[in-house]
Amino acid sequence: MKALILNSGLGQRMGVITNEHPKCMTEISYKNTILSRQLRQLVSFGVEEVVMTTGYYNKVLEEYCNALHLPLKYTFVNNPLYDKTNYIYSIYCAKDALKDDDIILMHGDLVFESRVMEAVIDNENSCMAVSSTLPLPEKDFKAVIKDGRIEKVGIEFFDNAMAAQPLYKLKKEDWLVWLQNIVKFCESDNRKVYAENAFNEVSDKCKIYPCDVQDMLCAEIDTPEDLKVVSQKVAEVNERTVYMCFSTEYIHSGHMAIINKARRLGRLIIGVLSDEAVSSFKRYPLIPFAERKALFENLAGVERVVTQDSLSYAKNLRALKPDYVVHGNDWCEGFQKPIRQEVCEVLAEYGGKLVEYPYSNNPVYKELDANHRAEAAMPDVRRGRLRKLINMKGLVTAMEAHSGITGLIVEKTAVLQDGKTYQFDAMWISSLCDSTAKGKPDIELVDMTSRFRTIDDIMEVTTKPIIFDGDTGGLTEHFVYTVRTLERMGVSMVIIEDKTGLKKNSLFGTEVKQTQDSIENFCAKIQAGKKAQKTKEFMICARIESLILEQGMEDALTRAFAFSGAGADAIMIHSRKKDPAEIFEFVQKFREKNTVTPIVVVPTSFNTVTEQEFKDRGVNVVIYANQLTRTGFPAMQDAARTILENHRAKECDDKCMSIKEIITLIPEE
Ligand code: SPV
Ligand code: MG
Q1: Helical H runs in 384-475?
Q2: How far is the CA of 230 from the centre of ligand 1 (A)?
Q3: Which one is catalytic: 442, 498, 517, 569?
Q4: Which ligand has the nearest atom to the CA of 428?
Q5: Cα(368)–Cα(150) distance, rounded to whole angstroms?
Q6: What pTM was estimated for this model as a whole?
Q7: 442 catalytic, yes or no?
């Protein structure tokens, strides 16, 4: 696309202002003339070629353009009869340079805000800027609209007309029709009329549509009074601010495209989502906040970078009051919909505007995202994320997973509540559920190789950190190998319980015979594990069974201090009572002496306590240890029974996910 700028005229009505240069070289704002502003706008829209008709002070004008050093290729075409003809003849002189492309046609004294040019350029048709909100001008151009198209342009039309400005996008096929008639006019010596007169004769074949720019700035400057009014408006436009928010960890050309669009609207302020906000809806970012912020701070055209500490824009919008918020239109649906709704409400409070651009579905970006996700799943990246999350959030939640599909449920399930997104932070690979899925009792019967296989299945399709139920850890001599394997796989934490001999599930309590390990033995196991591990992020958590085995609070606390002293990175305290009192008492007494070692709880029986209450009392990890298993298997039993009872599958259908859903449940990467 080329631009055609008409700059041959004398600009007589400007008085002394145009004594020494053409009108387009008149200053309109600090650092910009009418022309330099237009040219810079064209560059920002990716225009590379400008055909400029010249006349009055043509050499001054050419030199000026070249001195701007803009990335534009100019073709200057002098109209030697500039003082005797109208611009129709200037176009005629330039005709040979204007036959091979779509063009943007504008008068050299037109000042417009970038949204006007955007609306014109993005229009799929040939179009002219008109305004449905401005009154019809007495002496300036009006466009007569018929059947949705522009039938005539001129100063003399008032019926069915709209105020119009000489800014057009003309597709080659339309432009050539108009140009042909311009040539015909000029060659029959009809050179003192508007070029639009030639258009009016062929408007049935040259299909130009109105592009309504309403009350956006788009005005010609004919007089010093116009200059004053428009300069003031330009100053206002230049003061506008634009807000965008990013959570991205890398910037690709799609981001740049929308940033460039936003920059045209005003001075760009970027909100960078805090790590906490990012991990509330995605995963813990691989690139920490400070680095992500620096990405944008170093981007040309970004005026300021601020922190956005939640998914909600409200706080920043109320503080910054940007004129525009820019976003891709992808947030009209899905979990971002209420966030968008809130943005609209806050913008309405002070008259800001939301500008949305079509979301790019470019497969390259999808691939970049997939690669990035894959990176997040790599062992070295995944392993350390649990520690980071505990430090960042204070309390993290983990949900049981025992297969690829349950892993995906934990990975992807998200709930939007009160403008916030909630999801599980981590996955718990429970010995109970892993064994149950294999139809085996939870007595360390499923061997480690098989348990590692489960981890592998889950890891293959997820990215969230993994907490592994290591049962008793087995013999110390075996545990050290387990630690290294888990670490190598990218598991974040192993929890081992202080039992020995034939371990049974804790929820049996004292109904079955279970033996607690001695403090000395268990400390030695922890120490051996810590010594064996190769990375500093891997965590070994000591699980205390004293309350389960009714050994009393004192015993539980003595063990907790001994185990943390032996190097345990966290302490899990377990109970099978419905009443959380003993858990609360333990947490309080432990925290009186130890404020740093993370505390883990598994509230299967004391399940009325909320995460917030646990957090307030000093708990750091809440594990939902078996709920997917306990909900999934009854549903399957029910389906099996229903088929048996009815001797066919029809009655079961309503209980089932559709075949279509099941085959599309797992997207192909
Ligand atoms: C598991 O989920 O396997 C556990 C927790 O160890 S509990 O079943 O409560 O013992
Ligand atoms: Mg277990």
Answers
A1: 385-393, 404-412, 431-437, 448-461
A2: 73
A3: 442
A4: 1
A5: 45
A6: 0.75
A7: yes
